[in-house]
Amino acid sequence: MAVPMLDLVAQYQKIRDEVRGAVDGVLDSQVCIGGPKVAECEKAVAAYSGCKFAIGASSGTDAILNALMSLGIGRGDEVITTTFTFFATAGCIVRTGARPVFVDIDPKTYNIDPQQVARRITKNTKAIIPVHLFGQAADMDPILEIARDRKLAVVEDAAQAIGATYKGRKAGSMGTVGCFSFFPSKNLGGVGDGGMIVTNDPALAEMCNIMRNHGSKPKYYHKYVGGNFRLDPIQAVVISVKLKYLEQWHEARRANAAWYDQRFAGCDRIVTPYVEPHSGMIYNQYVIRIRADKGASRSQVEAHLNQKKIGNAIYYPVPLHLQQCFADLVYKEGDLPHAEQAAKEVLAIPIYPELTEPQKEAVATAVLEAVGG
Length: 373
Ligand SMILES: Cc1ncc(COP(=O)(O)O)c(C=O)c1O
Prior knowledge:
Layout: H1 8-29, H2 36-49, E1 53-57, H3 60-70, E2 78-82, H4 87-95, E3 99-103, H5 114-119, E4 125-129, H6 140-150, E5 153-157, E6 165-166, E7 169-170, E8 177-181, E9 195-199, H7 202-211, H8 233-243, H9 246-264, E10 270-271, E11 279-280, E12 286-290, H10 298-307, H11 337-345, E13 346-349, H12 357-371
Parallel strand pairs: 2-3, 2-4, 4-5, 5-8
Antiparallel strand pairs: 1-9, 6-7, 6-11, 8-9, 10-12, 12-13
Bound molecules: pyridoxal-5'-phosphate.
């Protein structure tokens, strides 16, 4: 049985009429930029994330870039982040003119290690970007404490983690500012690119609002150089419809994860995701480790799954400190060993809410056959 990595058609079939009605409403109104539908979506996402303000963005990437620009981060500044993340986290730092400082991860959760953050602070450090990877919140309390002591901004990259919780607090609401992505593969995905910034700081919210319109206020008067970082109304109405189902989809992902956890429990060649007891994980990805030290080979598992037409993906094969475009930052192999090891062993398998029991069985059987467990 073939199983895709993600089946958005299965999701769409259940909400098709609602989504089409909402999109038609935008088309009929011909309010194609901004307007009440974007404002409604912002209000709903702010409430859902426990924040006072939300500012729509053209993508998760632009949400991060806007947040950094609005915080005034630029040339000469350093921003500390994890090396084990999607490229956008660090790409945005470089685009402001600042320098990314990469640190290693906790090998259990794959999230940034707060102790290493503390060690890399210099007089030029302006911000920390923890990433809530795969849908599990980073260990925020020590990060927030470091930031408070040093007066640093904390920009939560919550692109993969809308709705995730840390000790009862929502991802995106703990730092200075939080950034979400509505890339279609996210738990809350649009029908194209989209994102959102959330914050409790009114001055920062206002700045993000100005920055997303090329830094102008009033229109055509530019005190700053911003960008076109706006969320489209068509994306906004789709997100507003889907937001109503989000908790239910998180639950279905959690149930699938629990099912896999149990199925893989007896196999010492596989490490299933570790979830902190205080963590409300939303499983944007279900990532297992294929243990080379126990004789298993990830490339063999990949090949077997591909042959059986079972979706799988490596997030991420190369940690950012070893990417060619960051060669001038002079990191070398061995500098951040936990992330480097994870990059060699991780494999994501299908976890989307609509997975059926026979599909899960097909995935788990194929993985177990391939590791020989
Ligand atoms: C951790 C992380 N940061 C940033 C982004 C960027 O989001 P987008 O693809 O919406 O620009 C993503 C999404 O892929 C992500 O996973």
